[in-house]
Write a structure and sequence with these properties.
The complex is a heterotrimer of chains A (263), B (338) and C (292). Chain A is of the alpha/beta class. Chain A contains ten helices and ten strands. The chains are: A alpha/beta (263), B mainly alpha (338), C mainly alpha (292).
Chain lengths: 263, 338, 292
């Protein structure tokens, strides 16, 4: 679909801070993501990961600092603008279009990549017909990519939890994002499903999509990420390849009580 | 609006053609002017309900101000034709435009909030328009209403009785149904449904939720305005009551009982509403009690409306024929909003 | 500007406003605690006025007793409405709840018309024709009673919510229904109390205002509109907001009616909410979850 990962920085976050009332949820975080990378954002509960995600996705304006996406300043841009520029996200709590079929979930999600609107549909212009046929083909391809092609006509509401989580990724992919933000995609999954997810993230990367994910399952994080960023109390405390970061004494201290993870 | 568009059979176009043919011969079967009049009312309510359905069914927002836009359209065309002598045919699009203008301003203000707040705000805006209509006597003649409104005419063809008016409104209903069909099959309409189903997710996919809702709201008010104008030129008398709470409730009842988020639902709902309204004429105020009970009953026990009964039957039928289809007797996507 | 007229308008406005506050307090409580927008709330106001009327005329009880009985009966009806409609639907989408309450409103209003007749009624009160003069301001005793009784009722509600066991349960539920349920609070009981309180207040408002106006089975419409304007202006769920917004609406309507045009008085309230919402989309006293 989109051209293979070209090198260079796709996301640059500098000195990003978010204050809620008197509480600083994210403090002075600076980080970058290179095109084609899979970066993991980890940290204990309440470390500010989701707050940072919400700022990147545009659903929460930062208190200070800046966000550059693909060379454009996006600080404070609302959700739909980030979406249009090519940042897709999934949510911590299952978030899809419940009373639409899987196929329609994906078709509705392809807003960014389609053009023919209401007028074209009324006139049934050739461009509209072509686009609809293409959209259908693409949607089925994405469903197949997420192992959901056999469920195309099933209502999202009626799917199993694992299927719903994959449908969420299918929805995000339908927008043909350049950067995909995954918020705890492995939450509630068993090890087998987790392994399937790892495979899927690898294939997503192979499509040329850069991935930033928040995740608690260290096995998933360690096996799929090129680089990790660790937050604690809203502050970035470590960054680097998983093998190095997960053995960092400071990181282990933060995760004290959990077993240190072998990478 | 068929969402599982693969496996297009010949059945659907045939059924549609058959349905349209049946609607076309109905006035000849009616046999008397009273029944023909009821047919016109059915189509008028169907038109208005289809427009309301864009907001309630596709956008998933409840508006209590829809009757006000019907009134704006009715008054616009009535005033233009009685005071300025404008031909009603020209008044019709102008009524749609003026109603859409009101819809744009009111929608722009009210769509900043969602859910119950939006519903209450639209009720407030509707009440303002009602109050203004009721008191701006110089323009609207106040509670006395406007009388002697000329009938709609296209050249020599005057829509001064039920039968021709029926065909005029039927044509508009079919056109609106097609517009809705095209809508849900387009990028725009899918954005509507995405916003209805999950607004934050829709936004994250690049859909401007506010603009999407505003677009749907304005389209709905434009159609409501046109419907109001036709009503004014057919009944020939309008009073501010057209904007009243009673009419607001009636339109909502039609959409909900028929089945929101579908095309056939509002048309069916209008038939049930007009049918019951007339057959229960002797019951007086008990009629509204019955409608109220029907509304609550439908909302609680049959959220997809009457049309969902047919969908349920069809789905059950389908899964018998070609197993394995969907697991249990799932409602079709058309059932839509929860 | 004539000061006497002005003071009179303000006094009238405060009295009307207090009645709005009583209606709106119930509406905002039901929303704040239970997250229900009850479209039928105005119908309990209507029932309050009618039951006062019928208890007075049929049983010959005096006005105060009739009003008290009416408030209690309507509180019971509110509990019944909760049991039949709102409690079973508590897990449903807000759309469903809003529509069901619209159905309930139509049901009660039209049922009322069937039972009570469409012709206006006049609630008898010994205070209706007696006049009280406070400085240059003249008010009927009944209107003074509306204000005074409303103040007493609101203080009682405040104390109830603040200090009683059920008040504490209500506040806990308002802040976090799931958490409240986990700590062993009986949510069903909270529903019952909240509806009893809210509908009782609406009925009290109807019983108080009844003698100052003619009553029709359709006045519930009017009441719920006023209630909504106040609640939206004050912020859904905010009791303090309802108090300020209600008095403000009463005074502004009264001044607008006096100095601009009586006909457009109704429109002034709506214009106010629109202005407020454009400025602060969640109301003047917008709150996160919780009662205040």
């Amino acid at each position: 679909m989109s051209p293979a990962a070209n090198s260079g920085e796709i996301l640059a976050v500098s000195n990003l801070t978010r204050i809620f009332g008197g509480l600083t949820a994210v403090r002075d975080v600076t980080m970058t993501v290179q095109a084609g990378e899979v970066v993991g954002l980890i940290g204990p509960n309440g470390a500010g990961k989701t707050t940072l995600f919400n700022m990147l996705g545009g659903s929460l304006p930062p208190s200070s600092g800046s966000i550059r996406f693909a060379g454009t300043d996006c600080t404070g841009a609302p959700s739909h603008v980030m979406g249009q520029r090519g940042v897709s996200r999934t949510f911590q709590i299952t978030s899809l279009f419940p009373s639409l079929t899987a196929l329609d979930n994906v078709r509705s999600a392809a807003f960014r990549t389609t053009r023919a609107g209401w007028g074209a549909a009324i006139l049934r212009s050739p461009a509209y017909r072509r686009e609809e046929a293409e959209l259908r083909r693409k949607a089925l391809e994405i469903l197949a990519f997420c192992d959901l092609d056999h469920r195309a006509d099933t209502l999202a509401d009626a799917m199993s939890y694992g299927e719903q989580r994959r449908l969420e990724i299918a929805i995000a992919l339908a927008a043909e994002p350049r950067l995909l933000l995954l918020d705890e995609p492995a939450a509630g999954m068993n090890p087998e499903e987790g392994q399937r997810l790892v495979e899927m993230i690898r294939r997503i990367r192979a499509r040329g999509v850069t991935v930033l994910l928040v995740e608690h399952h260290m096995r998933v994080v360690a096996s799929v990420c090129d680089r990790l960023v660790v937050l604690d109390h809203g502050v970035k405390i470590a960054e680097g390849p998983p093998a190095k970061v997960l053995n960092d004494p400071e990181v282990i201290r933060v995760y004290l009580g959990r077993e240190p993870v072998d990478a | 609006m068929n969402t599982n568009s693969h496996g297009h059979s010949l059945g659907q176009p045939l059924a549609i053609a058959g349905g349209i043919a049946a609607l076309a011969v109905l006035p000849f079967l009616a046999g008397n002017a009273y029944l023909e009049h009821l047919l016109v009312l059915w189509m008028l309510y169907a038109l208005l309900a289809l427009s309301l359905n864009i907001v309630i069914g596709y956008l998933g927002e409840l508006t209590f101000g829809h009757a006000a836009f019907v009134g704006v359209g009715a008054y616009t065309s009535a005033i233009l034709s009685t005071q300025l002598g404008l031909p009603p045919l020209l008044g019709l699009p102008l009524a749609g435009l003026v109603a859409a203008g009101f819809g744009l301003v009111i929608g722009y203000a009210a769509l900043r909030v969602v859910g119950p707040q939006f519903a209450i705000l639209t009720l407030g805006f509707g009440a303002i328009l009602f109050t203004i209509t009721n008191h701006w006597v110089d323009l609207t003649r106040g509670p006395m209403g406007i009388t002697d409104i000329p009938p709609m005419a296209i050249g020599p063809l005057a829509f001064d009785s039920a039968r021709p008016t029926y065909y005029l409104v039927l044509a508009l209903v079919l056109a609106t149904a097609y517009l809705c069909h095209a809508l849900v099959g387009s990028r725009t309409g899918r954005a509507f449904l995405a916003v209805r189903e999950n607004a934050p997710l829709a936004a994250s996919l690049g859909i401007n939720v506010f603009h999407t809702k505003l677009m749907g709201f304005v389209a709905a008010t434009a159609i409501a305005g046109i419907g109001g104008a036709i009503y004014a030129h057919y009944i020939r008398v309008i009073t501010p009551d057209i904007m009243g709470v009673h009419n607001v409730a009636a339109l909502i009842i039609v959409v909900i009982i028929g089945g929101r988020g579908t095309i056939l639902g509002p048309i069916l709902g209008a038939l049930v509403y007009i049918g019951l309204l007339e057959s229960l004429r002797v019951a007086g105020p008990l009629r509204m009690v019955i409608f109220a009970a029907l509304l609550t009953g439908t909302v609680v026990f049959l959220p997809g409306g009457l049309i969902s009964l047919w969908q349920r039957w069809r789905n059950a039928h389908k899964s018998e024929n070609n197993l394995p289809a969907t697991p249990t007797g799932l409602p079709s996507t058309e059932g839509g909003a929860k | 500007m004539d000061f006497t007229v002005f003071a009179q308008q303000i006094a009238n406005g405060l009295v009307n406003g207090m009645a709005y506050v009583l209606i709106a307090t119930g509406l905002t409580l039901v929303f704040g605690v239970l997250r229900i927008v009850n479209f039928a709330h105005g119908e309990f106001y209507m029932l309050g006025a009618y039951i006062t009327y019928f208890v007075g005329t049929l049983f010959g009880l005096d006005y105060i007793a009739a009003a008290a009985i009416s408030a209690v009966v309507v509180a019971g009806l509110g509990v019944a409405a909760n049991k039949l409609i709102f409690w079973p639907l508590r897990r449903d989408h807000e759309f469903t709840i809003l529509l069901s309450s619209l159905g309930l409103a139509l049901l009660i209003a039209n049922g009322g018309e069937l039972l009570f007749g469409a012709d206006p009624k006049y609630v008898e009160s010994p205070f209706a024709d007696e006049v009280l003069e406070i400085g240059t301001v003249t008010l009927t005793q009944q209107r003074v009673l509306v204000f005074a009784a409303a103040v007493v009722a609101l203080i009682a509600v405040y104390l109830f919510i603040r200090y009683s066991r059920f008040g504490k349960m209500m506040r806990a539920t308002a802040q976090n229904p799931d958490g409240a349920a986990l700590t062993g609070i009986n949510i069903g009981l909270v529903h019952t109390y909240t509806f009893a309180l809210a509908c009782g207040l609406a009925a009290l408002s109807g019983a108080l205002v009844g003698p100052t106006v003619m009553i029709f089975p359709t006045i519930g419409n009017w009441a719920v509109l006023k209630g909504f304007i106040v609640v939206i202006m004050g912020g859904l769920g905010s009791v303090t907001g309802a108090l300020f917004a209600g008095l403000l609406l009463g005074v502004i309507e009264s001044l607008g009616g006096g100095y601009i045009s009586l006909g457009f008085m109704e429109a002034i309230g709506y214009a106010m909410i629109i202005a407020v919402l454009l400025w602060r989309p969640n109301g003047l006293f917008s709150t996160a979850r919780g009662l205040r």
